[in-house]
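Guanidinium exporter, Teichococcus globiformis. Tokens?
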Amino acid sequence: MAWIALGIAGLFEIIWAFTMKQSAGFTRLWPSVITIAAMIISFGLLSWSMRSLPLGTAYTIWTGIGAVGSFIVGIAVLGESVTPLRIAAALLIVSGLLLMKLSSAE
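Tokens:
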């Protein structure tokens, strides 16, 4: 159950990163409200998952989901550039996440 909560926490991290961008420095109300709500949910689920998962594993997986997910959203929704180096970097992050998951005893 902790892994599911951690995955959902990572998804909410992607949401708050995207809506933070949309908030224009917290000058737009609804994107700002969504950002704060998604942050609270994300941190809450991360905290809950850390009850049984190791700190390093949980935090690395959470930030990795957020980083790669935000990278994908940036490309798909915001039209950010796709370059071979950016794709390679994302693949390295995903590889690290898989290794972290495989090395976890939980």
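Helices lie at 2-22, 29-49, 55-76, 84-103.
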